[in-house]
Amino acid sequence: MRFLFAVVLLLATSHAFATDRPNVLLITVDDMNWDSVGVYGCPIEGITPNIDRLASEGMRFEHSHVTIAICQPTRAVWMTGRYPHNSGALGFNPIRRGVPTLVEKLRDEGYHTGLMAKHGHVVPTRSAAWHEIVPAKELKNGRSPEHYYKRAKMFLDGAQEAKRPFFLMANAQDPHRPFYGSAQEEASKKNDRKNKADQYGGGFPDATRIFQPKEADIPGFLPDIPDVRTELSQYFTSVHRADQVAGAVLKALDESGQRDNTLVLFLSDHGMPLPFAKTNVWRNSTRTPWIIRWPGVVKPGSHDRAHFVSGIDLCPTVLDALGLKPLDGTDGKSFLGVLKGEADSSRTDVFTHINTIASKRDYSMRSVQNAHYGYIYNAWADGETSFRNESQAGLTFKAMVEAAKTDKAIAARVKHFVFRSKEEFYDYEKDPDALHNLIDDPGQAERIREFRQLMQKRMTESRDPKLEQFQKEILTAS
Questions:
Q1: pLDDT tens-digit map of 223-237
Q2: What is the set of domains in the chain, with CATH numbers?
Q3: How far apart are CA 281 and CA 105, in angstroms?
Q4: Of 27, 69, 171, 408, which has the most beta carbons under 10 Å away?
């Protein structure tokens, strides 16, 4: 009897302690370029009103990046705070057994945990860590603002009934392919009923605003040709719908009465699913629109232009904000001080990766970049191996290949995308779209040497398995 009383007392005490902790709402979108957001410079009027409003209520980061520009491994980084080779999740692989995760830690600490969409990509082998999982097929392929609102309200009500703080990860699957109104979407509709995977199904919602090709904002890394405009108009229609999903979840939070006690994080998992963005390590591959709102802690409307923050830091930062110890073995570090307005002189660059992709092919790449320059090591590039990924589906790449027959500049871009070179170096301040590889520029030789040394340092610190190859191919040769 005495033992039973002690257990009940312990549970009651820890339960009461947990309710004093802030809630956490993590909203993510799929494949949304950083500059597709209004507050980040997208010129399309009214493209992301909900995300823009969130930025006005919190802090947005100028130099924010994911660690790896592929959907499943980037989420593994968020959940573990480890580089891919240190968690086992190099590509579409599960996190290694024994590696602790954010959601397991929060559940153990008394949090009510919920996941909306991307179930197969967010710690898929740790399903028991989630109290509630809402598959994408119950959210119209993870794209229905109405469904997200209803299910978010249900989850938040459940957390309140349980008298626990909550951790809700709401993943919008827009603007991932298939884009709204595309031939790929039509094909997906036909196959929808046959698809039994938890991640997909349920049909596709209508769009309340459909953009026309003339309205599309063409990024500098793509040519302005008709089919590119058409595909980007479909992409931006999906961007707007993703913003509505984010707004729907935030509305449910407001109505729950928990807004002022909730740490909200918003970001994209990587750049747009078009050539020279997703599944690569250029600046437009990994740069993400990262916004954090925390009433009473983060200054509303603040814009951090000084610090580099990375997906590797998400888990340590959340745990630090909640007053919890970091997970064992994390590579990232908390930037809670930056959120509070403090300076951190160590945050001057970011280290990003690609390893294996969805096809299981190895296209190992590494990049280090700061606010001015960026260096890339393509371990796979040999002049013969060709690159293929999802961004070559749809209209854009096919249009580029066709245009390359008569346009030398586009032909050079296509060749570079497919074959690369072993090294790349860019002056991102002057050339943000990575159009001019300066690796052979004599005027940049000393700076390139410094970046090679920085790459070696980052690879050494993280125990990167590609370090030996980098040293042999680059450092010894140079």
A1: 999 999 999 999 999
A2: 23-350 (3.40.720.10), 351-475 (no CATH)
A3: 30
A4: 69
